[in-house]
Amino acid sequence: MSSGDDEFFAYFDEASAGSCRQSLVDLDAYIKSAGPFDGLMAFSMGAVLGATLLVQRVQKNAVLPFRLAIFFCGGVPGDPSALDHNKIRFLNGASDGEVLHLPTAHVWGKNDSGSLTWGPGLAELCSSQLATAFTHDGGHEIPGWNNSAGLERTVQCIQRTINRAIGSQ
User: Fold this and answer.
1) How many Å apart are CA 16 and CA 25, to the nearest integer?
2) How far apart are CA 136 and CA 143, in angstroms?
3) Among 105, 117, 113, 111, which residue's Cα sits nearest to residue 147?
4) How far apart are CA 68 and CA 52, in angstroms?
5) CA within 20 to 30 Å of 158's CA: 28, 40, 72, 168, which one?
6) Angle, nearest 10°, between helix axes 17-34 and 45-59?
7) Which residues are designated catalytic?
8) pLDDT tens-place string over residues 7-58
9) Nearest to residue 45, comparing CAs of 79, 78, 88?
10) Model confidence over 80-123: pLDDT tens digits?
11) What is the 3-state secondary structure (H, E, C) of 55-98?
12) What are residue 131's DSSP bridge partners?
């Protein structure tokens, strides 16, 4: 937990379209220099960034850089085409539909304060045929040693996603 006075690092300033665009450029450059990667595994703001990069690739009809994505406490991605016009717009499953068509795992806590709809919102943007979701009893966290049932279900969710990716080769 943090207070309003705490300092922390972030991938981008969510109020700045320019900052968001630059984070996509930086992530894309990293993937090109250090990849290839089979999958994306991301938490919270990293999931927002990773999902936004995937949406950008879809919008440009480009090949996706990953065969699967695993999102922990994921957030709703921004619309890259809006960022190109210096505007910030978050995607919405009701209006944008299923945008991402790759195997995905979505794990979030039912007590995640401040972003209770983010996990489900991201899952709605992913193919319902390829997405697996699990809501654990915790908060803005990945289930660990102190939540063995949640950890086991998280592992099952991830394994199902990997199996789907392997099966789609």
Assistant:
1) 15
2) 7
3) 111
4) 14
5) 28
6) 80
7) 44, 112, 140
8) 666 777 777 888 899 999 999 999 999 999 999 999 999 999 999 999 999 9
9) 78
10) 999 999 999 999 999 999 999 999 999 999 888 765 567 889 99
11) HHHHHCCCCCCCCEEEEECCCCCECHHHHHCCCCCECCHHHHCC
12) 104
- Is 156 within 8 Å of 129 (Cβ atoms)? no
Q: What is the DSSP string of 45-58?
A: HHHHHHHHHHHHHH
pLDDT digits 0-9 by tens, 39-53? 999 999 999 999 999
Residue owning tokens 């983010």: 118
Both tokens assigned to 138: 């915790």
- Mark residue 97 as left, alpha or beta (left: phi above 0; alpha: psi -120 to 50; beta: remaining): left
148: enclosing H helix or E strand: helix 148-167
